[in-house]
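Two entries, shown back to back:
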Amino acid sequence: MTAADARAMRRALELAAQAGAAEEIPVGAVVVGPDGDIVADGRNTREESHDPTGHAEINALREAAASVGSWNLDGHTLVVTLEPCVMCAGAILQARISRVVFGAWDDKAGAAGSMYDVLRDRRLPYRAEVVGGVDEQAATVLLRSFFERRR
């Protein structure tokens, strides 16, 4: 993990906490450019936006594409607090994200190695490098706390 990854994960965890405070599932995501600078970020907004695609990764990818001026984010890294789902993994590949760094594994819906491995599927025309389990405990605590409060 690079210093830029660590900085981005800290920001993603802040965004996840903000999402939880807004009664969204606490997930945050950050897009880091090839130079190591944060290009964009996002958090879950599905409940407040009434948008089923309002996942942190999708929001961060949209902001990054607008910031860069291109849908093609080759050379960029997506840092996210929870392993991406199938929808987000598809969007990550469509955006040509080169690397994905995530915190907590998602044994129920993860598409970066736990349930599915869409991001590294050799049958697809584009693949991303995947680094999982970064700051896993911090991300897991946010998620567990959120769901325990809801029970």
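entry 2 starts here
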Amino acid sequence: MTAHTRPTPSGSAFPPSNKPWTVRRKTAPTSIMPPLSQRYDVSWLDDNGMVDDFVRMGPAVPLFTQAFTALVRGGILNTSEGPVAVEDVLPGMEIETASGPATLLWKGAHTVLPGAKGKPLFRLPTDSMGLGRPAPDLILGSAARIVSRRSSLRSLIGAEEALLPVGALADGQSVVQITPISAVQCFHLGFERHQTFRVNGIDVESVHPGHLDPALGDEMQRLYISMFPHISRPEDFGELAMPRLSDEQTSTLIAA
């Protein structure tokens, strides 16, 4: 007796099987890591109180670039050793913050090239925010958030002060968006917890990613956290020192 076979849709044949038919479901696509096309420089204070550093490639996505592009070379910070330019501060130095002197634990640097998309710079002319705010002129990067104490904040969010992105204040006079014609070195600073501190008399915030979206995927999140050797998990960034305004709240505040 000859064994019968069943034709497949393509016309071929396969031996009969007693195994039940199963339907294979397509698995959900995993997040794809963007190209690691950007150079990020990191220095930090290790457990032995020594300054260590490394250079690492990462993607050109806001999560990464915003952790390195808040302050521009030339900005002056108040330290326990007197005024120091941001490019010269080192982990281990005591920086004057709104909550008192705080040890700098992390410093990130990234060079913004001419024509880089999503990385404008912003110039604040002397006294544009009030007497001595700033003094002298201050240039901030696209990731900078500054402290606002406008009276309308109380009715808007029930707080006396909040953080808003410097780009939202660009009006061509007090805050002027500029496009660099040559490479510009930008920085960000990190402490044990989220802080605000003054650069040229303007209150700005330290690095903090906010809420990390789980959709980033494990690989992307691990790479991001690896940029901060002084912490081991996202929760180690701690709570925000003050509220950050949403885009809608920022628009309402500025229009008030």
